[in-house]
């Protein structure tokens, strides 16, 4: 039992009100894999340049992470630099160097083609389609995207959506994709585009999941000190998809628990720069925060019906 | 057993993408009372002009609403006119005519002075203090405010906060009052200002409650068609405070249920213009939506610990 992620690996330079990190490991595949590995082994499909530092690779070396699908190409690794606003709700990209990522054409080796559970991280929908075309028996495919593709490759994105089981996007993207400003209506509109499940990431407000029969909301775990929000969405994806794939069956019960684990894992990422917060997490802390979400949301209406006049 | 609200009554002219309503009953006291009356009798303390229409007064006539504290003064009733943005998340005030509300000095008649459970709606903190000074045995006092007072009468507001048990405000107000951008930190900062409980209204994201020992989040009930958000916050206050006062004891259990009823009642208000949606609500629908919130938030982590590697 294992899952695969096809996404980016890169070196991020991040400035937030809490400080600055220079050329640290980043990319959707890194955050996703480091979160999902707590639940299930993960194979990474990505590309790095010949300059990819041993330290960055070392952060991904773990018995539950298969790095054999990481292609090393002559040239420089993808780099991104951004600066966050004071409240960290917005960020400005100062620099994007695609480098070897510009020529990325994911080729899955034979064993990877047999994977049934795959996360298509936020990359060009044309590449997402090429990955899908290589899978022999796709069963549980989760897809992420962003405004850039919603505007620039809408047709290709809509084609992909017909072939994925779950779409994971944030509120702004859901609005732009569907034209609906009410979030639960946007989520239901997504279900008409192909996916049977839509998961909407809401940042500090948590996330919610919409399927035909289920509408489940989960708050974010409150964090004492938010240091760097980079990668929180991909970390959510890792916790959500790792837990869901590990539970094997897709039911209302497993979907609810998977969303909770997504929110829990994301909370570790924002506590430090890059993958540092996520990388040091231990099992007991994950369980403790999942219990915390339960405490934050549980209530009883026993005997309250009699309160009503 | 009964509660009192001291707030505004007025005639609102409201334009939203869904249409327009002209000079309909509005004001914090109206929304609060029409929500809270489902749980407990409510006495209103407010002022209207001699032009207050019989139809508006009629909307408040109910066996559980005591209107004897509504002062009728010579002159015109408070009027407000506003227009909402396309997504209804922001609104522009086109006109505010304070009229008789400008001279409002709440005077509680003797029976009202014995009330222990009082909602001080969003009015000048100087008036809120005058109300508090008239109460013989205040027990459960809930206070609302707005940016206008946070900036313009900060000192007077801070004095009031030392004397109220629960502060209810929205996210933007919480940020401006405390200077904290993380909401749960803003809520905890409020607890250092006097209140033992802070309730933060988050609009389409629901609400959360923070006390010394409890952090409880509740999502908004998803609404098919949002017609007019006016009064949703005061309706939340009515559902929350009505249920809490009715349960008599302030415990983690009663606070959780009260927040749920606050979110439930607010969902009826946004479904139609002014108080129309709220005024026609029946008991079974309230119970159905409270169950719906339970369905939206419940999850089980049974056996999920074994998922973790």
TrEMBL record, chains A, B:
This is Sugar kinase. It comes from Eiseniibacteriota bacterium. The keyword Kinase applies. Gene3D superfamilies: 3.40.1190.20. InterPro entries: PfkB_dom, Ribokinase-like. It comes from the Bacteria. One of its GO terms (molecular function) is kinase activity. Residues 19-275 form the Carbohydrate kinase PfkB domain. Pfam families: PfkB. Keywords: Kinase, Transferase.
């Amino acid at each position: 039992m294992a899952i695969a992620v096809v996404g980016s690996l890169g070196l991020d330079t991040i400035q937030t009100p809490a400080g600055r990190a220079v050329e640290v490991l980043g990319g959707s595949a890194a955050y996703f894999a480091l979160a999902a590995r707590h639940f299930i082994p993960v194979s990474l499909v990505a590309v790095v340049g010949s300059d990819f530092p041993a330290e960055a690779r070392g952060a991904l070396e773990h018995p539950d992470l298969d790095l054999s699908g990481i292609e090393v190409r002559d040239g420089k690794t993808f780099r991104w630099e951004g600066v966050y606003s004071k409240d960290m709700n917005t960020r400005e990209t100062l620099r994007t160097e695609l480098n070897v990522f510009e020529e990325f054409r994911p080729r899955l080796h034979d064993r990877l083609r047999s994977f049934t559970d795959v996360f298509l991280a936020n990359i060009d929908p044309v590449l997402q389609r090429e990955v899908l075309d290589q899978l022999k028996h796709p069963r549980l495919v989760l897809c992420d995207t962003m405004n850039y593709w919603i505007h620039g490759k809408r047709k290709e994105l809509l084609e992909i959506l017909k072939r994925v089981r779950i779409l994971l996007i944030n509120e702004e993207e859901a609005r732009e994709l569907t034209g609906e400003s009410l979030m639960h209506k946007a989520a239901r509109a997504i279900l008409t585009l192909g996916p049977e499940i839509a998961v909407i990431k809401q940042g500090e407000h948590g996330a919610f999941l919409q399927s035909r029969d289920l509408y489940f909301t989960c708050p974010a775990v409150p964090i004492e000190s938010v240091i760097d929000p980079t990668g929180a969405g991909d970390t959510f994806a890792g916790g959500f998809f790792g837990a869901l794939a590990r539970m094997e069956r897709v039911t209302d019960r497993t979907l609810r628990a998977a969303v909770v684990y997504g929110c829990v894992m994301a909370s570790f990422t924002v506590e430090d720069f890059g993958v540092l917060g996520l990388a040091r997490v231990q099992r007991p802390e994950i369980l403790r925060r999942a219990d915390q979400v339960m405490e934050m949301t549980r209530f009883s209406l026993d005997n309250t019906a009699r309160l009503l006049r």
